[in-house]
UniProtKB/TrEMBL annotation, chains A, B:
Domain HTH marR-type: 13-146
Pfam families membership: MarR_2 (PF12802)
Transmembrane segments annotated in the record for this chain: none
Protein name, entry field: MarR family transcriptional regulator
InterPro entries per record: HTH_MarR-typ (IPR000835), Metal_resp_HTH_trans_reg (IPR052067), Tscrpt_reg_MarR-type_CS (IPR023187), WH-like_DNA-bd_sf (IPR036388), WH_DNA-bd_sf (IPR036390)
GO molecular function, one term: DNA binding
Keyword terms, alphabetized: DNA-binding, Transcription, Transcription regulation
Originating organism: Hyphomonas atlantica
Domain of life: Bacteria
Length: 155, 155
DNA sequence: GTCAATTAGTTACATATGAAACTAATAGTA
DNA sequence: TACTATTAGTTTCATATGTAACTAATTGAC
């Protein structure tokens, strides 16, 4: 049996999970480098900032739900950003386990600088697609996300 | 100035780089769990197996190019798979720095088991899309990959 | 041939990450 | 009230990862 007689053809580079992973990593790496260079923030820290900026008083657990980060990553990002002086934590008055998070004035300054940059970046990326294509991509990604969702027992 | 008076609207969950990252991680995590459970292989090891199976005699550097893995990751995956008895390394006769990699019979057995499973999995995933949608997704991802490619100086 | 520059691949080190154990607070139940 | 179960968040520990330094072989210039 010759080497080329493969069970059935699998070309890694045409393999959807692989392509998605490479594309996502390429984009994430570039964005991470930008945020780090400009603001000294990791992607995780930036995600936390994005949701706290949008929803002041949010808790760590809620941040995790909104950002698809696990609680350890959230905890570490929060700790680092408090250290940096960008975040402030208050203990909830109604539930002593729960923390409520707010941007400090310095944090809000960074937030207001970084949001337009993030949006401009996304624009440069998705600007490679027409409006229709962007919507179609959204739709297709939604279908894939649904199919791959951990709730579904496909595999 | 009210909290909601954001510079401009940024909703993380609608942010393309974020959505891509979450989708890709969801899929990768599930596949990694499957390969690990069934064959004790990491995603990186599986990628190496996929290209060596397809191109016996390939070198580590070439594997890196084909799989978008960095050379350290390739080196480690190869070492582990030699240890497992799935890969064999010969030094190139024309270039003593270069190694040539081959699946052992045991490696080929695993390869022949895993390829159809990988393809079936992809099928379950991309089966959520019609043929036309799959092609469209390919096309859109290609445009994004092009726009995000490290050669381009967008950012 | 000899020596600097390049290339293939590995190793060492420092950091990132995730699972599981842990602490502290709350909720539920008797 | 007291006692157990649950939840929020942190810490610990073991592993994964990337950068940079390294070794070994080859190439190219002289």
């Amino acid at each position: 049996m010759p080497d080329s007689d493969n069970v059935s053809l699998l070309r890694l580079r045409e393999f959807l999970p692989y392509r998605l992973s490479v594309l996502s990593n390429t984009i994430s790496t570039r964005i991470a480098a930008l945020y780090d260079r400009e603001f000294g923030l990791s992607i995780w820290q930036w995600r936390v900032m994005a949701v706290v900026g949008d929803r002041p008083g949010i808790s760590a657990t809620e941040i995790g739900q909104l950002t698809a980060m696990d609680k350890v990553a959230v905890s570490r990002a929060i700790a680092a950003m408090i250290q940096m002086g960008y975040l402030e934590r208050k203990t909830s008055e109604t539930d002593g386990r729960r923390s409520q998070l707010f941007l400090t004035p310095a944090g809000r300054d960074v937030y207001e600088l970084i949001v337009p940059i993030a949006l401009a970046e996304e624009q440069k990326l998705s600007g490679a697609l027409t409006e229709d294509e962007q919507q179609e991509l959204e739709r297709l990604m939604g279908k894939l996300a649904d199919a791959a969702s951990p709730d579904r027992e496909l595999w």
